[in-house]
Amino acid sequence: xxxxxxxxxxxxxxxxxxxxxxxxxxxxxxxxxxxxxxxxxxxxxxxxxxxxxxxxxxxxxxxxxxxxxxxxxxxxxxxxxxxxxxxxxxxxxxxxxxxxxxxxxxxxxxxxxxxxxxxxxxxxxxxxxxxxxxxxxxxxxxxxxxxxxxxxxxxxxxxxxxxxxxxxxxxxxxxxxxxxxxxxxxxxxxxxxxxxxxxxxxxxxxxxxxxxxxxxxxxxxxxxxxxxxxxxxxxxxxxxxxxxxxxx
Length: 248
Ligand SMILES: NC(=O)c1ccc[n+]([C@@H]2O[C@H](COP(=O)([O-])OP(=O)(O)OC[C@H]3O[C@@H](n4cnc5c(N)ncnc54)[C@H](OP(=O)(O)O)[C@@H]3O)[C@@H](O)[C@H]2O)c1
Hints:
This protein is of the alpha/beta class. Helix content is about 45%, strand content about 15%. Helix 2 links the parallel strand 2 and strand 3 (about 55).
């Protein structure tokens, strides 16, 4: 497998799963436009991988973000072969205690922004017969008590993935990876208190047959495989669990 010469956009590439994806895709030889709100952690990738990295400090949910990200990638790398929608917002808590403003914020980052970035990138993806990989979650297919709205946004992203796969075929493939629990900074900002977060972590390990959290590079390698047309040229509309058996 090689992604040499391919131009890939990765959102939320500064930390956690996105960083693991960016490292794997860069090691396979691609040029990568890395997107996130904070510039500094993205710059660290550019320092390590040099000219193959183009840093775009951008909130994916801001008006006009898709247009700006696509313009940045095409200006720097001449086109787009793949879009990886990884940036996500996770706020947990029981529904009756939830702030409804968070529903809109989660929907904006987890569903509307990926749809808008795909829409803006579509002519370029069609030109190169490229693909989209959406980073969803097992939360989009499992019952998620205490995390219902987050799960609902990921179920919406799964639906988007399948519908667009058919809408864009045979020109552009659209797939999703559904990670199980991976230890990332996301777990520090869910809105749960320390005891609640610890209970959740212990419960997740107990309900994951492989008995451990996943690692970001274990998601990153699957993203590379889904981008590579030599491996996955006949794979579209797939919701691929990479989850230590949690949905088995
Ligand atoms: N960790 C898990 O167990 C797990 C499991 C299943 C699915 N997922 C999914 O995996 C994806 C990555 O999550 P993670 O665990 O790696 O979390 P993370 O470490 O918090 O990473 C999220 C990244 O997205 C960026 N981001 C957040 N909001 C953004 C926005 N509005 N615009 C641009 N960038 C934004 C953040 O950078 P800035 O703050 O600089 O913007 C950050 O680098 C998410 O979609 C999440 O739902 C995670």
